[in-house]
Structures
1.
Amino acid sequence: MRDLPNEEGFAGRMQLFEANAKEVDQEAQSARRLVNEVMADPRSSAKVLLARIENRSESLMSDGRPLLAQATDALFSALETQNVAVVAKPCHARRS
């Protein structure tokens, strides 16, 4: 069975996790901004397709965020209690 990370290692991974989450949000915002700019261009012929892409992107970010937060909270709780069995499970197996 795997050992739990030490405090220093955990803090470093947590910073990386938070930085990656911020980067994902920024990339999603940039993509939506670009899609909206192309849709606003009167010469654009793919407005319906772009609208669908923008809608799916928005849904992914708004609907997926609570699920990610729930999984993250469960994992952090398991780490704090040193529940190695839960921590070692793949993410999809942790869902309740």
2.
Amino acid sequence: MPRLDAERVALWRAFQTAGEVVSRSIEAEMFDEFHLALPQFDLLAALAQNNDQMRVKELCEILSAVPSSLSRRIDSLLNAVTSPEKKPQRLKTIVLSSCD
């Protein structure tokens, strides 16, 4: 395996920095247009690609998330799209539908 010399480390860091810049730019545009964070949009996109029905395990696999992280992501999405008085205290099933 090749050694990680200063040039390779610098290239890797530059690649990571460029990826972060692109990701932050996309997330800012997403929030400006849809008022959603990128992880929330990823969740909705995964559901849309799978006929709007998935089990937590399947969502975790697609989103590379652990169940507790996915739970927080779902909670933040619900906070973004529902008023506090309509948000259920305990969720067993969530049904999302698109509004055209």
3.
Amino acid sequence: MSNYYPYGEEKTVTADEQLKFATYRRDSESRLDYAVNRYYSSAMGRFLSPDPKSRSMSIVSPSTFNRYSYVMNDPVNRDDPTGQWCTGDSSDGCNGTGDENGEGGDGDGSGVEPTGGSGTTDDPYTGWGGEGTAVPDPDPAPDSPPDWGPDPEAPADPTTPTLPNSPPSLPWCSAKLEFRKVKGLVASHASIVVDDSFDFTFTMEGTPSLYPIPAGKLLAFNVAGDIGDVQWGPELTSASDPALCGQITAMEYAEDRYNARPVDYNFVHGPNSNTLAHWLLTQGGIAKFFSAPPLSYGWDTPLYSAPTHGRPEGGNRSRWRRF
């Protein structure tokens, strides 16, 4: 019986720093799985950086254009031991293993089949091979022996340094709290500026749905980039806290969930923009690093009568990426 759920979450938690799901080694600090060419998150069921191998995309299988997905969202029948492309059925985008008759492989458009399968250029959009019979190299070089790389038995060159294989770098994430004085009022407006794991920089803040205030609902929205208000407190980075990218993702989920169930806006006592900023920091588990900015009325006002947790039940999880 498997010890893992389909996307790698453990049914019974065991010690990290050892081979686990899909032959990946799980890091004890970030809880991410090292997949040779990039990192995988079993909690989110996807990779944290795009697939570095461009040939793993195919127009005949549109799902391969999602560069972050794990094994085309079919972990029961496929795996991806190197983080480059999945292994399995070659007919729908995976890297199938061809046989000696040229069936079942992936051509590269050059007429030479790298895995023993078909090598004809059937796809006019990508130039990659389709299925069929392998085509010989039209410009062979019979006098040139194949290049098998350096001789493993040759003595090492002392002038050439040997570098160990280094893991791919983790995505850079950051978060900071900012505020500005509300024009014409003795009050301030708080917002959160983040760099997330998708390399987006944007400002998370709240606003009333109707004017003049107070009126309508309190809505969460995002503005591209850093709006340049006054920073309050520290700037958190993933260099000092590897878990920060996941915490920012939790804030994004919480923001999406909130907009599916917004509350009434109250400028004086809250809920207002300060209430929402404090709530988002709490949902991400980083509120302990920040105090209330000056004149941020409503900061400690509960957003809901009871806290909510989990992933969004309603809204569109990609809404926050459209500015």
